[in-house]
Amino acid sequence: MEGEAALGDGSFGAEVGVRRRSASISDDYSVQKTNDDATESKYAAVKLNYYYDNFIDYFTHGVHRRDPEISTGYWARVAAVTSVVRQFIDATGGHCQIISLGAGFDTLYWRLKETNQQIHSYVEVDFSSVTAKKIRLIRKPHAWPTLPSFFSQPIKDDHHTDLHAGDYHLIGADLRQIAEFDEKLNLSDLDPELPTLVLAECVLVYMAAEKSHELLNYLSNKFKTIGFLNYEQVNTDDRFGEIMVKNLKDRGIHLPGLAICTNLDSQKNHFRTANFETINAWTVLHVYQKFFSPSEIERIESIERLDEKELLTQLLEHYSFVYAFKDGSGNHHELAEIHPK
């Protein structure tokens, strides 16, 4: 989805703006642009060597730098998601599948394949308007054969919004429409018996609670062994959280699922009621301080000078990772203990 993949980035930037520039944000700023914002922010972080991404240039270019809090937050987000994915793949020996909800212009598939990570199937889902644009970028002459060369089979697409290429599938669907979503997934070479990892970065908060609950129930019932990594806002009922939400509303970004983001317990309960068995939740600040290596944190914080370390701390404290797991097979207990690192 266009907004879901990048929602956190808007509030990062908005709060930095309030604290530093007090710049007004246009009322007509829409959710439709947040996918571009996310890609541009990732590009800016990559160009300063926060992390490596040899594929981001295919999806954006010529982006100016971002505030260091934003780039640091992006590094933490990308590093955590990538580490969970790699642990899941390693623990299953590659006999698994990944579904990325609201994937936008994410490049994780290519980054995994670049390091010879093999999986059964990698599926990206977003609004059809986003998937159509991503397909056009993948098919651009400058991208051929670099991007498609990683696919296990030649490209096939349907109606310009869906692309199928062996182990990679890009499908356009509205996640609030379960029948449509199910129909598209059934065309994506997924095996309900294989361990499946679902990724969602600021996706559920854009859906009414009953709709995201329906989505979680659907996924937990469809796959016998399933992990779900969710990234989005948390602690939204304190003063800092209220300012974040107001900044988003001022940009025309509305959050129907905000009630679930009150605290870590409300996040965990949302998954518990969808029959996930093991549910762990951490603020991004906890992950940053406790799970990442001190040497890597030192490297990150040396790239750009942070004028206000307190601001970074507050930002990271208001985003969370939830890792929920259910194992109907009884054979994959080791997957329950995965955590970002």
TrEMBL record:
Name of one Pfam family that matches: LCM
Gene Ontology biological process terms in this record: methylation; regulation of signal transduction
InterPro entries for this protein: LCMT1, Ppm1/Ppm2/Tcmp, SAM-dependent_MTases_sf
GO cellular component: cytosol
Catalytic activity, EC: 2.1.1.233
Keywords: Methyltransferase, S-adenosyl-L-methionine, Transferase
EC class (word): transferase
Binding site for S-adenosyl-L-methionine: 77, 102, 174-175, 201
Annotated catalysed reactions: [phosphatase 2A protein]-C-terminal L-leucine + S-adenosyl-L-methionine = [phosphatase 2A protein]-C-terminal L-leucine methyl ester + S-adenosyl-L-homocysteine
One term of GO molecular function: protein C-terminal leucine carboxyl O-methyltransferase activity
Membership in a protein family: Belongs to the methyltransferase superfamily. LCMT family.
Function summary: Methylates the carboxyl group of the C-terminal leucine residue of protein phosphatase 2A catalytic subunits to form alpha-leucine ester residues.
Entry protein name: Leucine carboxyl methyltransferase 1
Organism: Panagrellus redivivus
Lineage, uppermost ranks: Eukaryota, Metazoa, Ecdysozoa, Nematoda, Chromadorea
